[in-house]
Specification:
Protein name: Beta-1,3-galactosyl-O-glycosyl-glycoprotein beta-1,6-N-acetylglucosaminyltransferase
Number of strands: 16
InterPro entries: Glyco_trans_14
Keywords: Glycoprotein, Glycosyltransferase, Membrane, Signal-anchor, Transferase, Transmembrane, Transmembrane helix
Helix content: 25-40%
Family: Belongs to the glycosyltransferase 14 family.
Strand content: 15-25%
Largest sheet: 5 strands, mixed
Distance between the termini: 31 Å
Number of helices: 16
Membrane topology: Single-pass type II membrane protein
Strand order of the largest sheet: 3-2-1-4-10
Mean pLDDT: 95
């Protein structure tokens, strides 16, 4: 059953947690490993399906913001894609935290996701204005082209459905905002038509990913012995991340430019092409918002505003990039815990990855409260 305002996560003092209070953080960590607490905080797919039978009740009890909080936000709509394959509760809390009715949201649910996941997400978005399912759905395989194609499918839908949005941001189901919608709008306006994404010279240990052909075999991406042809047009391949903040004009280039189509076709059989496609396009002369290919124009994930990610190899000691993860690691990425929040909210990024309601629902709850308080305070 959905709660109105108070939830089990409110058994902790979020203000103290956000200030880094060690006793309150310890209390929260103990709660999150308590079986009864975990059961109280979990919302099942069937519960979402049941609650969304009455959309008005669902939107009211979940406290969705159903009107623009400022004129500045109203006239600067943002387009989002969200690629999701599980954890409906994570997805719904993400959507609620970024939702504003002038924005557009394309949701790509993995073709191989459980039927309960598809039904629950479909039920949720049927209640909410300007949120829709991707018209073409992929069976996403980790490390393969299908992950890029999922975002491109949403780019196509968003580009065609509305001509007013200014910027495109791609998300996954385990992202969470660390800025309000107004703060996001102001950050995007400050880009003045440029883009913000990681783009650097490809490190030596990743070069094989685009020098060898890769194929999906039995649901997994595998390296073959076949050498690929050189990059088209003599392009230099740059490395970055899957997550981007790009202008509408950049999206138009992706969808319509013949050069972009050739590059995408060439990258189709590489390993983890989402790490190369956007980073490379950003360095092509003439692309909207491009950066020159010289190393002095390289942008790391620390400086891009698109995503805050703690990589295990770069965290811990004083001379490392990030403080130690206070949660757990999945595929060398920190899944944030409450102990990370004080650091997170001081960063300049728009979103952080990863969060997990099954691991630490209190971390998400405290971010929700922090962002909602800031958003409503600014609108007064």
């Amino acid at each position: 059953m959905f709660r109105n305002d108070e939830t089990p996560e409110d058994m902790c003092d979020c203000n103290k947690i956000l200030q880094g209070d060690p006793d309150e953080i310890k209390h929260a960590k103990i709660l999150t490993i308590t079986k009864s607490f975990r059961q109280m905080t979990r919302v099942t797919d069937n519960q979402y399906i049941k609650q969304t039978e009455n959309c008005e009740h669902f939107l009211r009890t979940r406290k969705y913001i159903t009107f623009p909080l400022s004129k500045e936000e109203e006239v600067f709509p943002v387009a989002y894609s969200i690629v999701v394959h599980h954890k409906v509760q994570n997805f719904e809390r993400l959507l609620r935290s970024i939702y504003s009715p002038q924005n557009l949201y394309c949701i790509h649910v993995d073709k191989k996701a459980p039927q309960s996941t598809k039904t629950a997400i479909g039920s949720i978005i049927s209640c909410i204005k300007n949120v829709f399912l991707a018209g073409q759905v992929e069976e996403v395989v980790y490390g393969s082209w299908s992950r890029v194609q999922a975002d491109i499918n949403c780019m196509k839908d968003l580009y065609q459905v509305n001509s007013k949005w200014k910027y495109f941001i791609n998300l996954c189901g385990q992202d969470f905002p660390i800025k309000t919608n107004l703060e996001i709008v102001r950050a995007l306006k400050s880009l003045a038509g440029t883009n913000s994404l990681e783009t650097q010279i490809t490190p030596a240990h990743k070069v094989y990913r685009w020098k060898k052909s890769h194929q999906v075999i039995n649901g997994r991406i595998q390296t073959t012995n076949q050498d690929k042809s050189p990059p088209p047009f003599g392009m230099k391949i740059f490395s970055g991340g899957a997550y981007i903040v790009v202008s509408r004009d950049f999206v138009r280039y992706v969808l319509e430019d013949p050069e972009a189509q050739v590059l995408m076709s060439w990258l189709n059989d590489t390993y983890s092409p989402d790490e190369f496609i956007w980073a490379t396009m950003q360095r092509i002369p003439g692309v909207p918002g491009f950066l020159r290919a010289h190393p002095k124009f390289d942008v790391s994930d620390v400086y891009s505003i698109s995503r805050l990610i703690k990589w295990a190899a770069h965290e811990g000691a004083f001379n490392k990039v990030y403080p130690a993860c206070q949660g757990i690691h999945i595929r060398d990425v920190c899944v944030y815990g409450v102990g990370d929040l004080q650091w997170i909210i001081k960063q300049h990024h728009l979103f952080a990855n990863k969060f997990d309601t099954d691991f630490d629902p209190i971390a998400i709850r405290c971010l929700e409260r922090y962002l909602r308080h800031k958003a409503l305070k600014k609108s007064l």
